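User: Structure with uracil, C-alpha cells only please.
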Amino acid sequence: MRINKYIAVCGIASRRKADEIVKRGDIKVDGLRITELGFDVPDGSTVTYQGRIIKPEGRKVYVALNKPKGFITTTQDEKDRLTVLDLVKDIDERVFPVGRLDEDTSGLLILTNDGEFANKLMHPKNHVQKTYRAKVLGDFTRKREALLRKGVDIGGYITKPAEVNLIKQAPKYSIVEIKISEGKNRQVRKMFSAVGNKVMELERTAIGDVYLGGLKQGHYRKLTRQEIDRLQGEN
Ligand code: URA
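Assistant:
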C-alpha cells in the first residue's frame, strides 16, 4: 500500500495531508525515515508516525454519541480534561471524533476508526447538513431570522444561506432550530451573536439523516449501514 493511503486508512489525515506529513519526515517504516511520496509500504512492516506505531484498522466501527457539555472533542488533552473518548471506553477499536463540538455544546457526535469516511464527511464539498437547536437570549425577530437565512458576517467570513425556524418564543428567551452545512469555529454561536442574540445553550440534533432521537446524554449507539452509506452520499 502506498504510504499516503496507509496513513489515511489509519485515520491520521487525508491522503493530501498525508503527503505533507511524509515530506515533514514524521513517518518511519521499519525504523527508517521515509520522505519519498510514492513509497510502497511492504506487507508486515512497522510504520510509526511521530514515534507511535500506526496500523490500518481491521473492523470498522461507526457510532453516534450524545455528548454532554463539559467533554472536549480532542482525543488528547494536556490539561487532563474529560474527552469524548472517556465516554466510549468499552469500544476496543481506536475511534476518534469526526469534526468537533465545543466543550459547552451538547448533542450528536459521530466517532469512527474509518479515516476515509471521516475525511469524506468533513469535506466542505460534500455539504453534509448539521442541525442545531439553540436557546438564545431575548426575542428572535423576523428580521434576525431573515438575516441568518441570508448569511451574516462572523468576523471576516459571510456564512452561506441557512435554514432557520423559530420553535418557541418565551418572554426572555427563544428556541431556534438552525441547519448549516459549514463548520467554522463556533459558527452557530457567532451567527446568533451577529444578529444580537446570545446563545445560552446549544445542542446538535442531527448530522445529515442521522438523528439524535431519544439517545440519552453520555450514551452512544452504532450507526446503521443505511446511515453510513447516506452520510457518504452513496444512497
Ligand atoms: N457551532 C458552535 O458554535 N458550536 C459548536 O459546537 C458547533 C457549531
